[in-house]
């Protein structure tokens, strides 16, 4: 199902401190379930999902990263070629919010590509809020990205993260698509964003022309 | 000299994805196997080499705690000396608890950060197990990991160590409490509440020291930039390409960094997340019986597993391989499936160690 037709293939990474709910957000989005039963992510995990944005299908290859600093070496290798970035903090963990700028800067330092980002404050279901909505909005404005508060537990606004990211991706891809199609970077109508993917995806991409 | 050409790899190489019709007669054998262990363990000076040999093929669960302590050289094979040595180790641990968890203890920022990390991870260690959801067990696990962190400043606590300590904890605890190791729950939760606190502290201390013993030869898997795992990966590529070139080529051209991250993920927690908990205990029997070489065996275990899915993987493309490797069917394996895989891994290891 997930391996079927699509217009674009996009690599997305999810970043943020340990325990803010990155894996839960993704599982809710990709598998429509929430479970308390997730172990800490080691290194990176992989998920795949087709996102419909109006008349287009965007295939998301999503990398769920470990929050612990020790794994930064391995998670950073996935920054390259990422086109969508989801920064997550926990509304009940002040430090995780304070650290978001560190995560944003780590992206700015390691990639020159323009990326579509979104800032997510998770755990909206909890009564013990430590970060106000206005603070999240302000930070998102500073880095010119959309902002959303979510609850993976209650499946609140999770789809919206990807819908909003998807809209921005679509606008960007259509613009970029025009730009690079002159540069023979398109293949079967599909815009390739990532060199690694370029080498590996030929067999699935051949049937994707729209 | 045994070279790879001289060994008929095909005879080893089990291309069946599942181990069917495994030797189920192990149940019948259990009686005599337990007796063999008991014969060894009852000697005044326990012949460690015999024990290593016997333990490699699996340790009966009721003897596991003693055998593991011996294999890790935490417990002395000399029965007379053992008690004093182990008591001293335990006292050392209790002293560390008193120092690092003293009342009014002030932690610096770095320590606070790692305490928070450990507490987050402890909450999600083997999340579907009632044992690990027990607050008393969680506090105990936090202490073990924090003390490990302080005593090993070069690498500190790294996510995945919480998984590695869990087999020790369950095995040592099961000496005093009835545990359903399949469901990983207490047969009777109240038993823990009524257990002598002194015994719980012993379990904690023993788990800590066994974690130390196990990790001492692989510390550079966990230090900055994790050089041990990079070496492990390079060796993995070298050996897989020799044993199954087609698979190797398909994997390395289909995936690049991704392959490294799988190897990394599996080996950081000693392959434990690849199997059901009970099967993980069986895995530890063999790893501990390998002494200092156990991490090398892990490499060959990974290779044996991948080769098992070789034909399938070769037909898959990027996404499908990724999805398969994310959710390997090894989680469905029984202990005897793992035993066969271990034998294969051992055979491959022998080929390469003789080269």
What can you tell me about this protein's structure?
- Chain B: Pfam families: RabGAP-TBC.
- The complex is a heterodimer of chains A (210) and B (355).
- Helix content of chain A is 36%, strand content 24%.
- Chain A is of the alpha/beta class and 210 residues long.
- In chain A, strand 7 (186-187) and strand 8 form a beta hairpin.
- Chain B has 355 residues and is mainly alpha-helical.
- Chain B is built from 19 helices and 2 strands.
- Chain B has helices at 9-12, 26-41, 48-56, 64-71, 79-100, 109-123, 130-133, 135-151, 161-173, 190-194, 197-215, 227-243, 245-254, 257-268, 277-289, 294-308, 310-315, 318-326, 335-353; strands at residues 179-180, 185-186.
- A two-stranded antiparallel sheet of chain B has the order 1-2.
- In chain B, helix 3 (48-56) packs antiparallel against helix 15 and helix 16 (294-308) crosses helix 19 (335-353).
- The longest helix of chain B has 22 residues, at 79-100.
- Chains A and B meet through strand 2 and helix 7 of A and helix 6, helix 14 and helix 18 of B.
């Amino acid at each position: 199902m997930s391996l079927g037709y699509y217009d674009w293939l996009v690599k997305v990474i999810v970043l943020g401190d340990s325990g803010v709910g990155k894996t839960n957000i993704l599982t809710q989005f990709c598998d429509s379930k929430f479970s308390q039963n997730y172990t800490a992510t080691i290194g990176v995990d992989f998920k795949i999902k087709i996102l419909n944005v109006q008349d287009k299908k965007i295939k998301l290859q999503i990398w769920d990263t470990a929050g612990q600093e020790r794994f930064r070496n391995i998670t950073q290798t996935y920054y390259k070629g990422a086109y969508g970035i989801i920064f997550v903090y926990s509304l009940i963990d002040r430090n995780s919010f304070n650290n978001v700028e560190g995560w944003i800067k780590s992206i700015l330092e390691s990639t020159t590509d323009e990326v579509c980002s979104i800032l997510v404050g998770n755990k909206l279901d909890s009564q013990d809020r430590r970060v106000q909505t206005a603070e999240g909005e302000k930070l998102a404005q500073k880095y010119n990205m959309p902002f959303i508060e979510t609850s993976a537990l209650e499946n609140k606004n999770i789809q919206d993260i990807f819908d909003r990211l998807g809209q921005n991706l679509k606008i960007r891809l259509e613009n970029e698509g025009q730009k690079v199609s002159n540069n023979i970077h398109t293949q079967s109508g599909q815009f390739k964003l990532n060199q690694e993917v370029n080498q590996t995806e030929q067999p699935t991409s051949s049937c994707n022309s729209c | 000299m045994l070279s790879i050409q001289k060994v008929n790899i095909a005879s080893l190489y089990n291309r069946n994805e599942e181990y069917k019709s495994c030797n189920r007669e192990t149940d019948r054998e259990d009686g005599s196997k337990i007796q063999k262990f008991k014969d060894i363990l009852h000697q005044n000076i326990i012949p460690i080499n015999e024990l290593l040999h016997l333990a490699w093929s699996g340790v009966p669960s009721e003897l596991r705690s003693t055998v593991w302590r011996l294999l890790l050289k935490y417990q002395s094979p000399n029965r007379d000396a053992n008690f004093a040595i182990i008591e001293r180790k335990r006292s050392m641990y209790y002293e560390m608890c008193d120092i690092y968890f003293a009342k009014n203890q002030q932690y610096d920022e770095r320590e606070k950060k790692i305490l928070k990390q450990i507490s987050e991870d402890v909450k999600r260690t083997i999340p579907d197990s009632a044992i690990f959801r027990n607050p008393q067990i969680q506090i105990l696990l936090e202490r073990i990991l924090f003390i490990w962190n302080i005593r090993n400043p070069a690498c500190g606590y790294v996510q995945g160590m919480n998984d590695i300590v869990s087999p020790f904890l369950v095995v040592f605890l099961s000496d005093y409490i009835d545990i359903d190791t399949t469901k990983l729950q207490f047969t009777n939760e109240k038993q823990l509440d009524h257990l002598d606190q002194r015994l719980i502290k012993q379990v904690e201390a023993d788990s800590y020291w066994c974690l130390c013993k196990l990790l001492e030869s692989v510390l550079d898997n966990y230090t900055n930039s994790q050089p041990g795992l990079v070496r492990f990966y390079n060796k993995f590529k070298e050996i897989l390409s020799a044993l199954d070139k087609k698979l190797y080529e398909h994997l390395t051209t289909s995936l690049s960094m991704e392959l490294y991250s799988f190897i990394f993920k599996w080996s950081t927690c000693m392959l434990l997340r690849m199997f059901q908990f009970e099967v993980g205990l069986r895995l530890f029997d063999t790893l501990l019986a390998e002494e200092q070489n156990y991490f090398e065996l892990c490499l060959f275990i990974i290779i044996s597993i991948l080769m098992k899915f070789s034909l399938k993987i070769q037909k898959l493309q990027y996404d499908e391989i990724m999805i398969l490797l994310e959710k390997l069917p090894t989680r469905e394996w029984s202990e005897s499936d793992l035993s066969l895989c271990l034998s294969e891994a051992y055979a491959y290891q022998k080929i390469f160690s003789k080269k």
